[in-house]
Design a protein that fits this description.
The chain has 124 residues and is mostly helical. It has one domain: Orthogonal Bundle (434 Repressor (Amino-terminal Domain)). 62% of the residues lie in helices and 0% in strands. The longest helix is centred in the last third of the chain and has 30 residues.
């Protein structure tokens, strides 16, 4: 099986793609915007409306939080319909590969901070 053709995405296309995927996962799980906001610990759902409409730049941290609520890997929120519907490797979509790399970097940074804090506390 050959890999799908890779596409370059503009910022607006990325925002729209993420928004579409967030809405799809939210609806698939039967969550309202208010319920989703509550699950994320937000007091207002207006930011989620902006994300779903493709009108909000989303941080990697927020993307990972959304993925945790949906119980999916974070890169699933970056996959286009072409890639999601095909049985292809997880790295065939460049956005998904970038997201996986970013997510791993965040986890490594978090562990490093926790280790540093533990070492500091033990030396006191």
């Amino acid at each position: 099986m050959s890999n799908p053709t890779h596409k370059s995405y503009s910022d607006n296309e990325i925002q729209a793609l993420i928004g579409k995927n967030v809405q799809r996962h939210r609806e698939k799980q039967g969550l309202t915007l208010r319920e989703m906001a509550e699950a994320l610990g937000l007091t207002d759902h207006s930011g989620l409306v902006k994300i779903e409409n493709g009108n909000e730049n989303i941080t990697v941290q927020r993307l990972c939080s959304l993925a945790e609520v949906f119980k999916v890997p974070a890169h699933a929120l970056l996959m286009s319909d072409d890639h999601r519907d095909k049985a292809c490797c997880e790295n065939c979509d460049p956005l998904a590969a970038l997201m996986q790399q970013s997510h791993r970097t965040l986890r490594v940074a978090k562990v490093s901070i926790e280790l540093t804090e533990t070492a500091s506390a033990e030396s006191e």
